[in-house]
Amino acid sequence: MANADCIIIEGSNMAECHPVGFQWVSEAKARGARVIHIDPRFTRTSAIADTHVPIRAGSDVVLLGALINHVLSNDLYFRDYVVAYTNAATLVNEDFVDTEDLDGVFSGYDPQTGKYDMSSWAYAEGDGNGGDGNGGDGDGKVEEPGGGDEHGSEKSDRAAPHSHGAAGAPMEHANVVRDETLQHPRSVFQILKRHYARYTPEMVNDLCGIPVHQFHEIAKAIAENSGRERTTCFAYALGWTQHSLGAQFIRTAAILQLLMGNMGRPGGGIMALRGHASIQGSTDIPTLFNLLPGYLPMPMVGQHDTLEEYLTSISSPRQKGFWTEADAYTASLLKAWWGDAATAENDFCFDYLPRLSGAHGTYQSTMAMIDDEVDGFFVLGQNPAVGSAHGKMQRDALSHLKWLVVRDFQLIETATFWRDGPEVASGETSPEEIDTEVFFFPAANHVEKSGTFTQTQRMLQWHHQAIRPADDVQSELDFFHELGVRIRERLKDSTDERDRPLLDLTWDYPTDEHGEVDAEAVLREINGYHVTGERAGEVLDKFVDMRADGSTAGGCWIYTGVFAGGINRSKNRVPGQQQDDVAPEWGWAWPMNRRVLYNRASADPQGRPWSERKKYVWWDEEQRKWVGKDVPDFPIDRDPSFRPDPDAGGPAAIAGDDPFIMQADGKGWLFAPKGMVDGPLPTHYEAQESPVSNSLYTQQSNPSRLIYARKDNLWSPSGTQPGSDVYPFVFTTYRLTEHHTAGGMSRWLPYLSELQPEMFCEVSPQLAQERGLVNGDWATIISARSAIEARVLVTDRVRPLTINGHTVHQIGLPYHWGVGKDAVVEGDGANDLLGVVLDPNVQIQESKVGSCDIRPGRRPRGEELPRLVAEYQSRAGTTVETGTEHANPVPEDIRRRRAATLTSDESEGGSS
Amino acid sequence: MASKDTTFLGWPVLRQLASGDFLGRGTSVTSRRTRHVEARTTTADRVVQSVCPYCAVGCGQRVFVKDEKVVQIEGDPDSPVSRGRLCPKGAASEQLVNSPSRQTHVLYRAPRAKEFQRIELDQAIDMVADRFLEARQHGWQEFDDKGRRLRRTMGIASLGGATLDNEENYLIKKLFTAAGAIQIENQARI
Amino acid sequence: MTTSAFDSYRPPDEGGRRRRRPSLRDNVSGAARSMARGSSGWLTGDGGGRREAQAVPDVEFSSYYGRSVVKPMPWKHEIPAYLFIGGVAAGSGLLGTGAAATGLDVLRRRSRLTAMAAVAVSGGLLVSDLGRPERFLNMLRTVKLTSPMSVGTWIFSGYSAFTGVTTAAELARMLPQRSSGPVGTVLRLLDAVETPAGVGQALFAAPLAAYTSVLLSDTATPLWFESRRHLPFVFVGSAALAASGVQMVLSPVAQAGPARRLALLGVASDLVAMHRLESQLEEDGVREPMETGHAGRMLRTAKALIVAGGLGTVLAGRSRAVAVVAGAALATGSALTRFAIVDAGIESAKDPKYTVEPQKARLEQRRAQGTVDDSIVTVR
Amino acid sequence: MSYLQRQLGGRTDPAQDAGWQDAPGRKGFFTDTSICIGCKACEVACKEWNAIPLDGLALSANSYDNTGDLGASTWRHVAFVEQDADRIAAARESGRRLVELGMPGVGAPAQAATQGGAPAGYGVLPAPVEDHGPSLGDMLTETRAFEDRSPEDGASHGTTVDGTPMVGALPEFRWLMASDVCKHCTHAGCLDVCPTGALFRSEHGTVVVQADICNGCGYCVGACPFGVIERRSDASTTVRGDGHVPNIGIAQKCTLCYDRLQHDQTPACAQTCPTTSIRFGDRDDMVEAARARVSQLHEQGFTEARLYGANDDDGVGGTGSVFLLLDEPEVYGLPPDPVCATSRLPEMFRTAGYAGLGMLGAAAVAFLGGRS
């Protein structure tokens, strides 16, 4: 990041949330880089940026789309890069119909289910290929693996990211049709151009509230700082992900960055700024329902009934890249878990894996708890009663459990909800009515245990145990190991087949003299080892050593190499002063200690650096290999001019100029033929709750967002709907430097608490005047779900925006506080205002934006509080149905055109 | 020296006259404690390299331990990630570790009880293990409505992991998956 | 001020279990709040728009949310009380020695005993004002010429020692009969040192009365610092008239003549010096705290009492009653003067206006005179 | 000039004055507020290292500043000031006036006008820790080498120091953040007036309280022209489990981490500062860095930048902690022309002497006058 010439920070308050990471922005700035901060509020990041651009929360796709349109229509994109390294030249299936022609939905949309059949989005397949017998009916249409006997919507289920791993959108072939002149009307380039043609600076002005001259300032900065000599970097955080089309926000930025040639190059890319010590690690080795370690998907019922089906769905052997080796990764994982019980004959116990049948994310689980379907709940270092959207629903769910295990340092609100929760205070419930058994276990902290954290740039760093934990304090490692031991002990005589996975589990980790599990032994298992062969028992040095025949075991293939040579490389601590900027001898980054992914793209198609200034990894003709400052993220000895056999698959199919080695076609995806369930191209929809109507389409919100119509999850009317004026303001939630998410690690610390002692809301002077709010006094904020109180900060850092000619006021709400009695400071939780609506790709809730009203004074107490909320609901006329329609009504001709894209597929694919 | 401090000769007024510090603003007025001041970073028994537990930047930390107590946590200047710097949260790590309000005992709240009670760790784990198996059994789904094998339980859910070590997440995922529990989630989705 | 009808639902004690900042902070945020209602903005932090009574024209004043720049002295009533009683002690010592020299026995005895009592009370006041009273002996740890308090401590100590001797001599004189043995030795010794001690007491009395003005002026408290040229004369005058006033009350009219004369001189010094002090403060733009509020009221009363006491003193030679009333008026006037000056000084420290405006003015003045190299703000 | 006067005002080496032979060199801070992000890590690191109790838990509603000011339990304090365009223009103008007054300033080189630049934010001073990252010189060279942006249309935005048009638009709004700390004055009022010797000048030229000596007379509190030092009140709140609050009734302030300095360690605040807004080192180097930085900002047209405490001829003889400010000092709660009151002490003692003599004289008159 320090190498960037221009840094766009959008959807992130980097200086506040990542002050130490911000030093790299500072350093880039010192070198002359331009820093632009795009955010609803003027934050501490804005204070240091060259320019702050206020934007209406949730309108980012309009801005980014307009930037895409700007660089396309003014020929400002990096043509050599785009042609060589992206799928711009690739032709798309002729059945594809864009949102521009269907008034806000793509082809394949089923209004009944709110889901897409994505088959029409596929690449056109070239003629005269080797023929794989799979689809290929002449028009280049690519079919799903596993036959065409399903409904489109089910296919959509299947292609949803929760059913395949991260980058693992599979493709049947690498044989695509390309038009390198980029002129073909069905080329991705032309589709992109048409799609974003209406995203103009004027549209940005109207929808984002960004004046035209400021748009040009941003556009100019990006254009001038991209290309051979220069790179622009984007940084985002939860301001983008926490939306009902959050994944598409990131996609839009990725498209722009690919067009400008800023991916895989030093000072380029899109930086995700993540909020937790090991949030990257917890997706790599996921405590997530849809993934197995290393981004292998959890098997889906009906699709992954056998190992073969599973592997085929991850990657066709004929596609390019390293995902084709998924069989080796999977077999090694299963061997690591079930050891000798896992054999080639029994598909390495693939059947031991439970099957998914849909999304089982945390919000689905929450609702299942309310429906009494879940008995027991483990909460590990999180505080959902405060930190999750719709706090009231969260606490209600907790009270429906039979038992709850909370493991934390302090008595967080989730552990005391039954005693100190707001619903107890309001009389809606009482401890005597809550049946939940609560176990609070004191957890060990980072100095009381050893282990690795994976930081945001995929680097594993070992932290050493400094002291032993006191009293009953225990690490998760010890607790879950012990729990596993006792569970297995109870089942040891079981003959029930369902207990086999537990009994066959490899669970014999060495312990030290205090009975603590040796974390290094676990990391070694994660790294993997040779099971048989002459190196049996030795650790794997690299993931390409993994085999599908059961001769290797390894818990997470992307982490293979962390123990290369038997040395725990996450412990590497060669001081930064003694290394170059890349600092490869500090910690260990996956994969294979690469610090910049896809860094092949930092060289031109011939393997020469794009420029001397942006030299990073290049082809050394003499040594016949890729060299540079980093570990090349590319087959080390692949000549840039290498062209694979058209029938080849896997790593062998990667051409010498295919830098995006984990993508099925080796190219950066401007257009996503697979992988995004809500459209191959990002398009602007309004947030679930928005005071304005979507000017681009009749379709107001993301038509495939996940909606839960429940009476405890009401929505305010949006846009021009009657009643929307009852909740006239936009609120957005965020974090402060001084606190940490739901406060479990900050509100109990006096030094942090005194820096931000109370919940507050930030309002503009204009709104303050309009509503009689006074700086330092109290205000009550009411949404369709709840009402909270906060102290008022009146500040010019929040500005009213003019959207479609109307003034839109935004209210800023930090979300660190919660209601309880144990913390040093407490206050109402902003998340109580939120409802649950999810991004369909990643199941992340929309918590950055919602509609509300604000009034001076404190909120009512006791039963007056629910009464106030109900009074608003009734005034707005909101019901369970409000805001829950997937598709908005459209004229008949549009409806028919939309239907045509769906039925044509059904007729072709056949219906069961 | 010690004797001088406690005798008449240690009287700063005399030291004022004897030294160049006639106005009594420097050398002549120092106390014994001042002259022998120590930094606890220097007197620590050992220094352990660690990583900041808050956000995902992964700043390096140095943990200073004296008499098996953490006495100081500060930035690790060797770290190329953070170059010795820490944000306010990272700088408060010592308080996180040594917080007086930190819980060190297992607490149990029975159904409908109004307060927590202390129970033994061993007993608590046993209780959780029993309940785990019971809930697993209660929520077990062998097949879906189409008769396809699910082999899972919906009786147990888990939330957390983004603040945990990779090794811990690995064991959690491994144990839960083997038990058939699929509702495992963490902050990455919040 | 909140306007919600729901406020009453929140129990008043809620949140009250936390320790809040003392009222100073509340007041300040109150000021900030009132700004929010105004037109020019909560964000400029311009001290609540204090633009009335601009003492220094053409200097725009701004502050950090109206917070004080310098810290007010943490002293409570002990210190102004000490300023008064210490003054009485000093003046009484002078009267005692003078009376000894001129053979006014009653005046001598009563003055010396007054001095002793005042010294004892002063010591108590000084110790009780400390943050760590048990460490009062540390005051004798150094001799710090740069510290008026250290210098004052030594003056006070010296004065106390001489006062102790003269008091002992007075007490010895009150013993029924002279005895021999060790007691006799002590008494003889006392006889020998009484006169030198009296001289010493007188010599230390003047610095004791005067140093307290330096004690106040050698600070960053704007009003005190700007008072430095005149405050010593106010204080010695005040000490003189207070001690004299006390002796006018305690001693018979016949013996109190010198006290009355000293009182009149003190009154003159006090009034003249105070007048010049006020002009000086007016010029420096920090007079306001002396004129307004509690301090202003005290000072006005003090002046009236001193003038009245002074007039009474002129007549007091004829009537003990008048003497008592006049003396009491003078003593009270002195006490009020001390309290007023301490109070006004602390007020001047609390309001950033009195720190910033005079400083900006003097900076401008120096710049106007061509001196540009002595500013703390530089551009290179 | 008398011994006393030399010790009480003007340029001097304070450690030497305090009797230190072979002092290791005066240490100090340079706090560059133009790159402060207001994260308050300095406040926390300071409190953590020095085990300072809680300083209250009330929201001030003054922007993001909830600790108010420096005091017994806040030794580093970050100020937050929100300003609109008028105030920014005024700050820029007041800075320009300083130059015009004939204060030593820097003329902008010719290329400054064409150096496109940052209109709203302030360029960041590369201030890497030793051996980390490139040097200032390299960076500036690099910056210029790659700086090929055309100048913005800035004709209406005023002029730089030497009258060339401003390179950037005047922002509509800015948010100033500044970490304040004890100034460690060359002539320190608090130290001079301390009657017990609890405050002393260390060999590093810093001013430190000895908590084992201080008896809490409180005199230093009023003597500090910057309002830094304060006596800890018994209303302080513990951060420890045993309820103990250290040093109640004792004057407290920044020690510039005297204990760490004894072992060549960086003070806690400077070590933690994520953006190097707080730098620590030999005071001479700090002043030099500060001057380089203000020159750089002036070259870029940011005439609002100015230094605070870098002048050894000011009322306190220069400060150990030097600041770069972006507006008048009082905007940050700093005094515009602080004076160490003790520098006037000889004069004050003289006046008091006259008054004392007057009193003796008056007494003589009172007694002798009656006789005649």
Characterization of this structure:
The complex is a heterotetramer of chains A (912), B (190), C (380) and D (372). Chain A is an alpha/beta fold and 912 residues long. Chain A contains 27 helices and 29 strands. Chain A starts with 5 loop residues before the first strand and ends with a helix. Chain B is of the alpha+beta class. Chain B folds into three domains: 2-35, no CATH class; 40-98, Single Sheet (N-terminal domain of TfIIb), CATH 2.20.25; 107-189, no CATH class. Chain B contains eight helices and eight strands. Chain B is elongated and about 100 Å long. Chain B starts with a helix and ends in a 5-residue tail after the last strand. By secondary structure, chain C is mainly alpha-helical. Chain C has a single domain, classed as Formate dehydrogenase/DMSO reductase domain (Formate dehydrogenase/DMSO reductase fold), CATH 1.20.1630.10. Chain C is built from twelve helices and one strand. Chain C is globular and about 80 Å long. Residues 104-121 and 123-167 of chain D have low confidence and may be disordered. Chain D folds into two domains: 3-339, Alpha-Beta Plaits; 342-372. The radius of gyration of chain D is 24 Å and the shape is globular. Chain D contains eleven helices and ten strands. Chains in contact: A-B, A-C, A-D, B-C, B-D, C-D. Chains A and B meet through helix 13, helix 16, strand 10, strand 11 and helix 19 of A and strand 1, strand 2, strand 3, helix 5 and helix 6 of B. Strand 1 of chain C pairs antiparallel with strand 9 of chain D, so a sheet runs across the interface.
How is the main sheet of chain B built? Answer: 3 strands, antiparallel
Q: Tell me roughly what share of residues is in helical segments of chain C.
A: 55-70%
Distance between the termini of chain C: 47 Å
CATH topology of chain C: Formate dehydrogenase/DMSO reductase fold
Please identify the top-level CATH class of chain C: Mainly Alpha
Low-confidence stretches of chain B: none
Shape summary of chain B: elongated
Distance between the termini of chain B: 62 Å
Helix count of chain C equals 12
Strand order of the largest sheet of chain B: 1-2-3
List the helices and strands and how they pair.
The complex is a heterotetramer of chains A (912), B (190), C (380) and D (372).
Chain A (H helix, E strand, L loop, with lengths): L5 E5 L3 H4 L4 H9 L3 E5 L5 H5 L2 E3 L6 H14 L5 H7 L13 H4 L6 E2 L4 E2 L35 H8 L28 H8 L5 H8 L3 H13 L7 E5 L1 H4 L4 H14 L10 E3 L8 H4 L6 E2 L3 E2 L9 H8 L11 H13 L23 H9 L5 E5 L3 H4 L3 H10 L2 E6 L4 H8 L1 H4 L11 E6 L8 E4 L4 E5 L12 H16 L8 H4 L15 H9 L1 E2 L21 E2 L34 E2 L27 E4 L4 E4 L77 E2 L21 E6 L15 H4 L6 E4 L1 H7 L6 E5 L4 E8 L6 E3 L2 E3 L1 E5 L22 E2 L11 E7 L7 H13 L15 H18 L3
Chain B lengths: L1 H5 L5 H7 L13 H4 L4 H4 L2 E6 L8 E7 L2 E7 L12 H4 L1 H6 L8 E3 L7 E2 L2 H18 L1 E4 L5 E12 L5 H14 L1 E5 L5
Parallel strand pairs in B: 7-8
Antiparallel strand pairs in B: 1-2, 2-3, 4-5, 6-7
Chain D lengths: L2 H6 L5 H4 L9 E6 L8 H10 L25 E9 H16 L35 H11 L26 E9 L7 H5 L5 E3 L5 E3 L9 H5 L6 E2 L19 E2 L5 H4 L6 H5 L5 E5 H17 L6 E3 L12 E5 L19 H27 L1
Parallel strand pairs in D: 1-10
Antiparallel strand pairs in D: 1-8, 2-3, 4-5, 6-7, 9-10
